[in-house]
Amino acid sequence: METEGGVDVGPLGPLGVPFFGLAQDGTRYFDLHHTANDTLDKIDPAQLSQNVAAWAGLVWLIADSDVDFRALRQAAAAAPSAR
After folding, report:
1. 40: left (phi over 0), alpha (psi -120 to 50) or beta
2. CA 66 – CA 53 distance, rounded (Å)
3. Distances, alpha carbon 42 to alpha carbons 24, 32, 48, 52, in Å
4. Quick check: pTM over 0.85?
5. Predicted local distance difference test score (pLDDT) of residue 65
6. Which residues of the chain fall short of a pLDDT of 70?
7. Burial class (CB in 10 A: 0-12, 13-18, 19+), 8
């Protein structure tokens, strides 16, 4: 579980929202990201399907889990940083 999120969702952390990340292939992520050509028609359907399947699986596992991710997040935030 991530503890900081990133610029898009980082402000949710102090509110207790846990973050999750997948280590997917980001090789082409910034080819069009935040440009005028950043439109859905430029998305590779196979890559989008794989991404949706990976996130759906993760969200299903989280929802079906007995783990209190908010408590884990609070503990991680309170722990001394290893950085």
Report:
1. alpha
2. 22
3. 19, 8, 11, 16
4. no
5. 92
6. 1-6, 81-83
7. exposed
